[in-house]
Amino acid sequence: MTAARAPEATLVDLLDAASRRDPNGVYARFEGVEITYAELARRSRALAGALTARGLRKGDRVAVMMRNSAAAVATIFALARGGFVWAPVNALLRGEGLRHLLSHCEPSLLIADEALVAPIEEAGGGATPRIAHGVGGELDALLSGPEAFVGPAPQVDDVFAMMYTSGTTGPAKGAVVSHLMLRLAGEAVMLVSDARAGDVFFVWEALYHIGGAQLLALPMSHGVRLAMVERFSASRFWLRAKAEGATHIHHLGGILQLLLKQPPSPLDRAHGVRVAWGGGCPADLWRPFEKRFGVSIRECYGMTEASSITAYNDRGVVGAVGRPTPWFTVRLLDAQGRDAAPGERGEIVVRTTIPGAIFPGYFRNPEATARTLRDGALHTGDLGSFTADGDLVFHGRLGDSVRCRGENVSAFEVERVAADHPDVEDCAMIGVRADIGEQDIKLFVKRRPGATLDAAALSDWLGARLAPYQNPRYIAFVDAFERTASQRIVKRHLDVGLDGVWDRSRGERTTP
After folding, report:
1. E strand map for 309-420
2. Tens digit of pLDDT for each residue in 208-245?
3. Which residue from 6, 100, 107, 473 puts its CA 20 to 30 A from 430's CA?
């Protein structure tokens, strides 16, 4: 595919062609159980027909709150077939975040795992018509019903999904995603991963996130197979990848760091994986990860709003996210809207040669749409710079920084250093009120299991590796972090309070 030629087939077109050509061919394995093309096509027709019989019409929104499962895959294809708009819901959402999503998208129907019904009702979603999946639920019966769907096939420009962005620093926004965008995302995955027919993608990423959804077309369009699991497990990761014959793994949101911090194992080099592709590999972990696990890192950068992947690194330039895919161009603009000087940082701004490759806007949010889409370009809100050879380097979010002692401190840079500590499993930095000046830095840390790291020792360790104004004043230890579907920490829910946390200026805990 070239920039001048957009994909013409939808997810449904590809599935129907594959089920006719190779009905017993394996689309994917979920937890070791095969899903064939014919089975997937049949189940999707059955559910699409059942939903149409219930009065749903093309364009109606259907919220789906399910963990990865064979039924979840069939449900997504059924919604696509019927022309309904899939509104995936993070299965970890609770409370206000879930309430916001359900009230904002106003679904005509809710499909959910039985185990997730309680939080839906607690969030005020109990009045929406619902189909449950699980013991005693209705979904499996509908998927096994008669192939009753009769209706026009979706077009490539039709809306496929309304995908709510991570919302790490503010309420999630519903990005409108077309079938075309999903297909382009899949094409970009093939460029990033250097995959070929017969390869096996180990899919731990939730399908309700673009990182999982972007793979849905690949078995039909490129002959790869998906090896899907219900959820990510660092301790069992390589064992499961080996069992599935995986050749490719996806990394995002600190996954590489979590794998590196697992105890050494004979499986570190006996898994069969060739490529780890994705986004967010710290430069200082790049070579150590490749050396320990014997894989090639293939880094990329992108957003749901621009068909998931904008740039990819196929030349092994450590620390870079590479160059744009054939259908995108990238500029870096300074605060005055001028091109940033070579080596300087600027906002990443994306344009496309394929109409529709950039999303049309956020659902029911014209203000956010106007800020993001300007003069035909996507203003990402991300910081980047170009190397001398023209490779893009990602430097984090424009808004994810703290003004401390007159300096802008990037959370991306502080967190990357803190995560290198051998006793730190994960961490997150935010700005909090300061006695003097703009803000102080508060660092939240989750220790590795069994670690006894204390705040004073960690502060001394950071002080040797960060500038004085970057070293967090406050350190708080936590047992767990609330995470988005892509395993990013939800920073807007972190406690900005200072009572009872360790204070570097005093060398002790603060008191209420």
Report:
1. 311-312, 323-324, 328-333, 346-352, 373-374, 377-386, 392-397, 401-404, 407-410
2. 989 999 999 999 999 999 999 998 999 999 999 999 99
3. 100
Amino acid sitting at position 191: L
Contact yes or no for 222/190 (Cβ under 8 A): yes
C-alpha to C-alpha distance for 148 and 136, rounded to whole angstroms: 23
Q: Are strands 85-88 and 26-30 parallel, antiparallel or unpaired?
A: unpaired
CB atoms within 10 A of CB 3: 15
Mind giving me the DSSP string for 262-302? SPP-GGGGSS---EEEES---HHHHHHHHHHH--EEEEEE-
How do 508-509 and 502-503 pair as beta strands?
antiparallel
For the record, the structure tokens of 390 come out as 């023209």
pLDDT of residue 3: 44
Residue 169 has pLDDT above 70, yes or no: no
Query: Would you say 331 and 342 are in contact if contact means Cβ atoms under 8 Å apart?
Result: no
| Cα–Cα distance measured from residue 83 to residue 388, given in angstroms and rounded to the nearest whole number | 46
DSSP state of 492: G
Q: Give kind and range of the element (H or E) at residue 53.
A: helix 37-53
**CA proximity to 332, closest of 351, 310, 347, 352:** 347
Neighbours of 363 (CB within 10 A): 21
Inter-axis angle of helices 455-463 and 411-418, nearest 10? 110
Question: Which tokens is 228 given?
Answer: 């899907």
Return the SS3 of 98: helix
Do 204 and 177 touch, CB atoms closer than 8 A?
no
Please say if the pLDDT value at position 1 is more than 50. no
Phi-psi region of 51 (alpha: psi -120 to 50; beta: other; left: phi over 0): alpha
Identify the bridge partners of residue 461 per DSSP, sorted by sequence position.
Answer: none
Compute the chain's Rg from CA coordinates: 23
As a dihedral over the C-alpha atoms of residue 200, residue 204, residue 208, residue 214, rounded to 10 degrees, the angle is -30
Judged by DSSP in three states, 20 sits in helix
| CA nearest to 242, candidates 277, 200, 281 | 200
CB 70 within 8 A of CB 45: no
Alpha-carbon span 350 to 330, nearest angstrom? 5
- Alpha-carbon distance 330 to 303, whole Å? 13
CB 346 within 8 A of CB 339: yes
Highest mean pLDDT out of 17-31, 140-154, 414-428: 17-31
Domains of the chain, CATH where assigned: 12-154 (3.40.50.980), 401-509 (3.30.300.30)
Identify the H or E element spanning 87: strand 85-88
Structure tokens at 244: 């599935």
Q: Which helix (H) or strand (E) holds 431?
A: strand 424-433
Could you tell me which of 150, 153, 151 has the C-alpha nearest to residue 8? Answer: 153
pLDDT of residue 94: 79
